[in-house]
Amino acid sequence: MSTVTTMAAMTITVSTIVMMVATLISKKTHEEREKSSPFECGFDPKNSARLPFSSRFFLIAVIFMIFDVEIALLLPMPITMTTSNMKSWMLISSMFLLILIIGLYHEWNQGSLEWSN
C-alpha cells in the first residue's frame, strides 16, 4: 500500500473515532431540553406558527441590519484615505456620511427608533 493511501486511511479512522467520542460525550439529557430549545423573540416555538406578532421586532431587525452593513462600509474608509486622492475621498466620505445621517433622521422622525408608543 502506498504512503498516500495509508495516510488517507489513518485520517479517516482518526476522524471517525473523534466524531464518535464527541457524540458520546455530548449526549443531552431530558432536563436540558428547555435549554436547547430555540428562543425566538419571546415566543414559544412549540405553538402554532400562525400567531400574529408585533411588526416592531421585524422593523428593529431590519434597521439593525442596515446600520450593520453601513458600519462595514465605513470601516475601510481611513485605510483608503492614504491611497486615494484627498479631494475625492473627502467628497465621497462626506456624501456617504450625509446619506447615513439623513437616513437616521428620517427613521427617528418617523418614530421607527421608538420602541414604545
UniProtKB/TrEMBL annotation:
Matches recorded under InterPro entries: NADH_UbQ/plastoQ_OxRdtase_su3, NDAH_ubi_oxred_su3_sf
Signal peptide: none
Cellular compartments annotated: Membrane; Mitochondrion membrane
GO terms under cellular component: mitochondrial membrane; NADH dehydrogenase complex
Segments crossing the lipid bilayer: 6-25, 57-77, 89-108
Topology term for the membrane: Multi-pass membrane protein
Predominant location category: membrane
Keyword Membrane: yes
Xref: Gene3D superfamilies: NADH:ubiquinone/plastoquinone oxidoreductase, chain 3
Catalysed transformations (reactions): a ubiquinone + NADH + 5 H(+)(in) = a ubiquinol + NAD(+) + 4 H(+)(out)
Keywords from the UniProt entry: Electron transport, Membrane, Mitochondrion, NAD, Respiratory chain, Translocase, Transmembrane, Transmembrane helix, Transport, Ubiquinone
One of the Pfam families matching this protein, by short name: Oxidored_q4
GO molecular function, one term: NADH dehydrogenase (ubiquinone) activity
EC number: 7.1.1.2
Protein origin, superkingdom: Eukaryota
Database matches in PANTHER family: NADH-UBIQUINONE OXIDOREDUCTASE CHAIN 3
Protein family (similarity comment): Belongs to the complex I subunit 3 family.
Its biological purpose: Core subunit of the mitochondrial membrane respiratory chain NADH dehydrogenase (Complex I) which catalyzes electron transfer from NADH through the respiratory chain, using ubiquinone as an electron acceptor. Essential for the catalytic activity of complex I.
Protein name as annotated: NADH-ubiquinone oxidoreductase chain 3
Species of provenance: Reticulitermes flaviceps
